[in-house]
From TrEMBL:
PROSITE patterns, per database record: DNA_PHOTOLYASES_1_1, DNA_PHOTOLYASES_1_2, PHR_CRY_ALPHA_BETA
Top-rank taxon, per record: Bacteria
Pfam families for the chain: DNA_photolyase (PF00875), FAD_binding_7 (PF03441)
Region (Disordered): 164-189
InterPro entries: Crypto/Photolyase_FAD-like_sf, Crypto/Photolyase_N_sf, Cryptochr/Photolyase_FAD-bd, Cryptochrome/DNA_photolyase_1, DNA_photolyase_1_CS_C, DNA_photolyase_N, Rossmann-like_a/b/a_fold
Domain Photolyase/cryptochrome alpha/beta: 3-132
Protein name as annotated: DNA photolyase family protein
Cofactor(s) for this UniProt protein: FAD
Organism, as annotated: Microbacterium sufflavum
Family: Belongs to the DNA photolyase family.
Transferase recorded as keyword: no
Keywords attached to this entry: Chromophore, FAD, Flavoprotein
Keyword Secreted: no
Amino acid sequence: MTSPSIVWFRDDLRLADHPALRAAMDRDAPVIAMFVLDEESPGIRPLGGAAKWWLHHSLLSLDERLRDKGARLVLRRGPAERVVHEVVAESGAGAVYWNRRYGRPEREIDAALKSSLRDQGLTVESFAGSLLHEPWTVTTGSGTHYSVFTPFWRACRALPAPRAPLPEPRELDGVARPPRSDAPGDWELLPTTPDWAGGLRDTWEPGEPAARRRLRHFLDHDLPAYDAARDAPAAGATSLLSPRLRWGELSPFTVWAEATRVEGSARFLSELGWREFAWHTLYHFPDLATKNLRPEFDAFPWPGLDPRQLDAWQHGETGIPLVDAGMRELWHTGYMHNRVRMVTASFLIKNLLIDWRLGEEWFWDTLVDADGANNAFNWQWVAGSGADAAPYFRVFNPELQAKKFDGDGEYVARWAPDAPTAPIVDLAETRKAALAAYDEVKRAGA
Ligand SMILES: Cc1cc2nc3c(=O)[nH]c(=O)nc-3n(C[C@H](O)[C@H](O)[C@H](O)COP(=O)(O)OP(=O)(O)OC[C@H]3O[C@@H](n4cnc5c(N)ncnc54)[C@H](O)[C@@H]3O)c2cc1C
C-alpha cells in the first residue's frame, strides 16, 4: 500500500481552494489531516483569548467536514517540528503538504521541517494559499519592497490575475487507522472561569460553511453599497470576513474570484489589497508587532504609563462616547468596525499618550480576527510609525468622527448607552501634548 500523505492545516481551516489538500489527493494515497497547536516553538506568539475561542469552533467544524468526506482531523499539541516528525514516524507517511505562512518564526519552522523531512526521503511541498501574491513576487523596479500602498497595489494589479480557486474535494481517502488525536476540549481554548464568550457565541458562527454563506450574503446584499456605507459603523455594510480570512475558512482567491464578478467591487478589492500589503510588510519586517517600522519613532517620549487610563480605555470608560462604544463592541463581540478601530487607536496613542504596543496587545487578546500582520500593521499606521502611515499630525477628533460617521448616534446608543459622560482627558490639551511629542520624532528623523 502507498504510504499516506499528511496535510498539515494551519491558518487555512477549509476544504475548498486548499492547494495542499489538492496535492495530497493527486498523490493518490490515503490522507492524514492534521492540526498542531504550537505554543512552544521559539518566537511563536501565543494566541489571544478571542482567537482561541474561534480556533476551537473552527477546528470542530473542519473535523466534521472531513468526516463527511471520509477522513478526520488529527489534533496534536507541542513544538511543531517535533510533533510533525512524530506523526510522520507513527504513520509511516511518505509525503507532507502545507500552505505557506509568512511570519519569521513560522517560516523558520517550516524551512527546517522541509529540509529534515526531505533528508529522510519524504516528499514535502508547500503552496500559496493565504495570500493572492507571494511577498517576494511584488517588488519595485529596483527590486526592493514597497513602502507605499498605491504603487504596491498598482504593481499587484499588473501581475497575472490571482488564480481561480480550486474546488473542494468530493470525497477523501482517509487512513484506516489515524494517528492518536487530542480532543479539542483537552486544549482548553474556551474560557471557563469566567465564561466571557457569550457575546462571541451570539455574534459568530465559525467554520467554512458559515463563512461561505456570509460571503454570499455580502456579495448579494451589501457589496453594491459598500463604497458609500463602509465608514458608518452602524450601517453593517462591511463584509465581516476578517476572522474568516484570518483563519482561512475562506481563501482570498475565493473572495477575489467571487467579488470581481460583481460590478463596483474595486474599493472592496483594494481592502483585500491592504491585507496583502500588511502581510508583505510583515514578511519584510518580521518585528512589526514590537518595533517601530520607522526607527525615528524610537525617539517618541512616551510618558510614564497611568494604568488607570489604560484600564478605562480597555473597558470603554473614557467618557468619549465613540471610543467607549468601540471598546465595548470589541469586548462583547471580538470585533470592532474599522473606522472605530482607527478612532480608538488614535485616542490611546495621541490623547492618552500610551504606547501603541499596549493597544496592539489588547486588540491581540480580544479580536477574533487578530493576526500577526494586520493588527500590528494597522496600529503602526495609526501611530504614524508604520508603512504608508497616517501623518503624525493627524489626530482624530473622536467627537467630530462621531458626528461625521455616526451622525444620528445609532452606534453609540447600541454599544455605550450608559457610558460615563465626563472625558478622562481634555481632547484639545492632549492633542497639543501629542504634537509636541511628535516634534521630537521629527527632529530624530531630520
Ligand atoms: C488599530 C487597528 C487594528 C486592526 N487589526 C486587525 C486585525 O487584527 N486583523 C484584521 O483582519 N484587520 C485588522 N484591522 C483592519 C480592519 O479594521 C479590519 O480588517 C476590518 O474592520 C474587518 O472588517 P470586515 O471584514 O467587515 O472588512 P471589510 O471592509 O469588508 O474588508 C474586507 C477585508 O479586507 C481586509 N481589510 C480591510 N481593511 C483592512 C486594513 N485596514 N488592513 C488590512 N486588511 C484590511 C480584511 O481582511 C477584511 O476582512 C485593524 C485596523 C485597525 C485600525
